[in-house]
């Protein structure tokens, strides 16, 4: 409420004294602060535990990114192993080594 009062006073000053550059900048700053507070409240981040919640979300997001990266690395590793295994089997069959095993 204090920010809204300050904005109302600045608007009244601009109306009565004329709007000089400093007054206009102050009006814009107060208006943006009011808007930011409204957005934070609408998102549910205006309470005292919001900072901790955001930290937890960041940690969770980082863990997700790490897990996703690790999973893709493992998929690539297993794919390369499978291709190399098939290649070795193909070479063994081509050279006739499968008869030697029997």
Record keyword descriptors for this entry.
mainly alpha, 4 helices
Global mean pLDDT: 85
Helix content: over 70%
**Biggest sheet: strands, sense, closure?**
none
Low-confidence stretches: none
**Number of H- or I-type helical stretches:** 4
Distance between the first and last residues' Cα: 88 Å
Q: Can you walk through the features of this model?
A:
This protein has 102 residues and is mostly helical. It is 87% helix and 0% strand. It is built from four helices and no strands. The termini are far apart. The mean pLDDT is 85.
Secondary structure: elements and pairs:
Blueprint lengths: L1 H16 L3 H22 L7 H46 L1 H5 L1
Helix pairs in contact: 1-2
Summarize the structure.
This protein has 102 residues and is mainly α. Helix content is 87%, strand content 0%. The chain starts with a helix and ends with a helix.
């Amino acid at each position: 409420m204090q920010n809204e009062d300050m904005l109302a006073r600045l608007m009244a000053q601009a109306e009565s004294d004329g709007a000089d550059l400093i007054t206009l900048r102050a009006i814009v700053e107060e208006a943006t602060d009011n808007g930011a507070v409204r957005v934070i409240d609408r998102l549910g981040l205006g309470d005292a535990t919001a900072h901790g919640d955001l930290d937890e979300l960041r940690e969770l997001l980082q863990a997700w990114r790490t897990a996703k990266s690790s999973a893709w690395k493992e998929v690539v590793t297993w794919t390369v192993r499978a291709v190399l295994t098939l290649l070795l089997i193909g070479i063994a069959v081509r050279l006739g080594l499968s008869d030697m095993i029997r």
